[in-house]
Amino acid sequence: MPASPLDATALDATAMADLVRDRQVTATELRAAAQARHVATHATINAVVEWYDDPDTPEGPTGDVLAGVPFLRKDYGSAEAGRLVEMGSRLGRGFRAAETSEYYTTLRAHGAQVLGRTAVPEFIQHGTTESRAHGPTRNPLDPSLSAGGSSGGAAAAVAAGVVPVAHASDCAGSIRIPAAACGLYGLKPGRRRVAGPASDPGGWGGIAEEFVVSRTLRDTRLFWSVLGSGNQEFVASTPPSIAVSVDHWAGAAPDAEVVAATMAVAEALEHLGHRVETIEQPVDYEQLMSTWHPLFSRWVARDVRLLEEATGRVAGPDNLEPLTLALLDEVSQLTVADLDLAQVTQGAITRRLEQSMNSFDVLLTPTLGRPTIPINALGGEVDSMDAYLRLNDETFPYNYLFNVTGWPSLSLPSPAAAADRPIGVQLSARWGNERTLLSLAGQLL
Questions:
Q1: Of the candidates 107, 109, 111, 146, the residue with the CA atom closest to the CA atom of residue 129
Q2: What whole-number distance in Å separates Cα of residue 163 and Cα of residue 183?
Q3: Cα–Cα separations (whole angstroms), residue 380 to 15, 128, 201, 376
Q4: Is the separation of the CB atoms in 129 and 137 below 8 Å?
Q5: Is the residue at 21 inside a domain?
């Protein structure tokens, strides 16, 4: 145990809950330690957009599995009744949730205390967390870089030691991207495996899931035991076989540092007794990205309409960023035939991935196409949608596939990378195999 039980940066959620249950600290003391760390880091990283003055928190020691664990809510998706949900947009200022989602009902029932709200890019559109509403969120490991997105506020707060675990969601990599950037663990669950607005029928069309980012793998496992659903867990009679792909799926030049960090994990898994083989790129990237606007962007347009109706404001240049306005124009041109084609293509992509993985259990790739994410390059201030998408393709080629197919996908820090310059690798598997990914990651510790 660390010298001081209130050194929040040295404790994960599992350890904190143990201390509360053993009556060594209280939930109130953990909350005070989290707030002190937030105050100490906020000016540098800008991760938290609202720290609650009146948190609804448990008091005293309990037997709950998350007893007293401090937690932060992403400013999008699952929400708390009466609390602000502004979605990183000036259009959403003052908008409050009408009810508490099942996600937060479950966490509170297990003893977690929700202390505030983390930054997101406007309508969670970007792989970096920068907005006109709140400014950029910076990486605690190197404030000149982005913490990633869209769960960048969550990842920065966790990496900075404000809280051990935070709410995150992922519709195109938004859990895994900031986890990789900040040296964290980030599991995107399989389709409909965690309750929440994103995974409800009709919510984001089945491409988005909610979970957490965490500093330790055991905390990811702990929160999976609380939030995860179903008993259809893969149990391998033999060690899972691993396919490896380090080609840059969008056709850019692979980054040597990223490839080396990924192949180091492949070699470690082979040394552990797994069958590991390099395969050709498993899907057609151009075909995959042809589904982007029909499957992703239409939900951003839905959120804009929701906030217009709720706030009485009219969406426009005064309250939306340039890229959001460009996206709305693109979405306005979508037809029913476009949506139908995207869904047919989604099925074809899923079948193609299944075929590519026919003799393998898990796919290992880099999480990001580049080692770091710059500030002021991938946010909503880009005027050209084409230029924006090209840069996204270079930086984030490996993530969106698993939203389209509904497969679980886990980003974890490569043991071969330096702690102050983490590089994430991604393990992905068929639906229902979250525990396989978590078990495999555990073998690398």
A1: 146
A2: 15
A3: 39, 9, 28, 9
A4: yes
A5: yes
Tens digits of residue pLDDT in 107-127 = 999 999 999 999 999 999 999
DSSP state of 255: P
Give me the domain span that covers residue 238.
Answer: 8-289+334-443
Tell me if 319 sits within 8 A of 91, measured CB to CB: yes
Q: And the tokens for 230?
A: 């179903």
**pLDDT tens, position by position, 168-186:** 999 999 999 999 999 999 9
Percent of the chain with pLDDT over 70: 94
Could you report the per-residue pLDDT of 371-410, keeping only the tens digit for each? 999 999 999 998 778 888 999 999 999 999 999 999 999 9
Whether the CB-CB separation of 263 and 244 falls below 8 Å is answered with yes
Please report whether residue 318 resides in a domain: no
| Long-range CB contacts for residues 224-227, cutoff 8 Å, separation at least 24 | 224/187, 224/189, 224/434, 224/435, 224/438, 225/65, 226/65, 226/66, 226/106, 226/107, 226/110, 227/103, 227/106, 227/107, 227/194, 227/195
Q: Residue 305: inside a domain, yes or no?
A: no
Q: Measure the CA–CA gap between 192 and 254, rounded to whole angstroms.
A: 33
Q: How many domains does the chain have?
A: 1
* pTM, to two decimals: 0.96
In which band, very low, low, confident or very high, does the pLDDT at 147 lie, cut at 50, 70 and 90? very high
Within-domain flag for 3: no
CATH of the domain at 366: 3.90.1300.10
C-alpha dihedral sign at 123, 125, 131, 132? negative
